[in-house]
TrEMBL record, chain A:
Entries under Gene3D superfamilies matching the protein: sav2460 like domains (2.60.60.30)
Residue ranges of every copy of the TerD domain listed in the record: 1-203
Name this polypeptide is given: Stress protein
Organism domain of life: Bacteria
InterPro entries for this protein: Stress/Tellurium_Resist, TerD
A Pfam family: TerD
UniProtKB/TrEMBL annotation, chain B:
Organism whose genome encodes this protein: Planococcus donghaensis
Name of the protein in its database record: Chemical-damaging agent resistance protein C
Family: Belongs to the CAPAB/TerDEXZ family.
Annotated InterPro entries: Stress/Tellurium_Resist, TerD
Domain annotation TerD: ranges: 1-188
Pfam name, any one: TerD
Length: 204, 192
């Protein structure tokens, strides 16, 4: 049974589960349903970008022990889907976020993660947010979940419940080493950075 | 050289430091490195407890709105609203020899102001510590780094100074609680 996390909660992932290695990190979100009433006019006037699809992208920052992104290759996103050591693989871009379940998935082999990497930060941001005048106020039901690829068991599930209006990026959670174990922390913080490049700069 | 404590450890303070009376209890923390849109305001407070482990009156609860207690022997130097920068974020001056005999323990806590409304908890706080410094020489005597123990708690009891025979000792507690400062206030016997 999955553990449902709340914001800030940290749990040990590998302790007592030493065989765990291959996990799937699923990120999901839904576009806020457009209001039916007055839809015609607001569509015509383009009321706050309501008409256009919101394209969210999931990415992972692989950070060193000081929390720094030391190389461009350590940013895993739709343009760089696989880490050098092969431990982190992004399964590809989803352009609309429609439908149930995970919208984007990242597979991780914990045992293959390079020893220099201590922290994996999972970010969702809105593609072209500034240009399209979109923000996370137009997104709801965002979550991050971790599944054991072998048993298909959902290990943890974290629903991001706050109102992230005005934010163009969302730090969902992070996997981090503690001693010989891996832990997961539910972060759920919005960020004002308009794209993944400026998020990456924050960690450089 | 400071003694680094681990959780649950108890050390003697006055026995190994004869003549020691004035100490500074420094509390420090770093808050969320992510842009949560809300400031973190952590508060330290001191509960002056009697033999039953309770505060005898509101005067024995020392915090940002009541900065002195124990007849002036315990003095909170004031609120820090951001936790930014290195070193102690808040400090409490304690004159051990002036603490009235009715007080057996001084328990130090850190809580998050308005945690519930701001959706904050100690999972977003790191590098918390408490240290005890000799007020006369500025020498650090004891240091306790709380480590990675906290998650969804909104209050942490970091440690306590307590009488043992004729001496004062320090106990590294490091226990987290949900319910913020209010729950601690109730636990220690105040109804406000």
């Amino acid at each position: 049974m999955a553990i449902n996390l709340v914001k800030g909660q940290k749990i040990d992932l590998t302790k007592g589960r030493s065989s765990l290695s291959s996990i799937m990190v699923g990120l999901g979100w839904d576009p806020v349903a457009t209001k039916k009433s007055g839809g015609f006019l607001s569509n015509l006037l383009g009321g706050g970008g309501g008409g256009a699809d919101v394209d969210c992208d999931a990415s992972v920052l692989l950070l060193d022990e000081n929390g720094k992104l030391t190389a461009k290759e350590n940013l895993i996103y739709f343009g760089n889907k696989k880490s050098k050591d092969g431990s982190v693989v992004h399964s590809g871009d989803n352009l609309t976020g429609e439908g149930d379940g995970d919208d984007e998935m990242i597979n991780i082999d914990l045992k293959r993660i390079s020893p220099s990497i201590h922290r994996l930060v999972f970010v969702v941001n809105i593609y072209n947010a500034q240009k399209k005048k979109q923000d996370f106020g137009m997104i709801e039901n965002a979550f991050i979940r971790l599944v054991d690829n072998q048993s298909k068991e959902e290990l943890v599930h974290y629903n991001l419940t706050e109102n992230y209006a005005g934010k163009m990026s969302l730090i969902t959670g992070e996997l981090y080493r503690q001693g010989t174990e891996w832990k997961f922390s539910a972060i759920g913080e919005g960020a004002s950075e308009p794209d993944i490049g400026s998020i990456a700069n924050k960690y450089s | 050289m400071a003694i680094n404590l681990s959780k649950g450890q108890k050390v003697d303070l006055t026995k190994s430091n004869p003549g020691l009376s004035k100490v500074v209890v420094g509390l420090g923390w770093d808050t969320n490195k992510y842009d949560g849109g809300q400031d973190f305001d952590l508060d330290s407070s001191v509960f002056l407890l009697n033999g039953e482990g309770k505060t005898a009156s509101e005067a024995d609860f020392v915090f940002y709105n009541n900065t002195t207690g124990a007849g002036g022997a315990v003095e909170h130097t004031g609120d820090n609203k951001t936790g930014e920068g290195e070193g102690d974020d808040e400090q409490v001056n304690v004159n051990l020899s002036a603490i009235p005999a009715s007080i057996e323990k001084a328990t130090f806590a850190i809580t998050i102001h308005d945690a519930e409304a701001r959706g904050q908890n100690f999972g977003q706080v790191s590098n918390s510590y408490v240290r005890i410094v000799n007020g006369d020489t500025n020498e650090e005597l004891i240091r306790y780094d709380l480590g990675e123990d906290f998650s969804i708690e909104t209050a942490v009891v970091v440690g306590e100074l307590y009488r043992h025979g004729g001496e004062w000792k320090f106990n590294a507690i490091g226990s987290g609680y949900q319910g913020g400062l209010e729950s601690l206030v109730k636990d220690f016997g105040l109804n406000s």
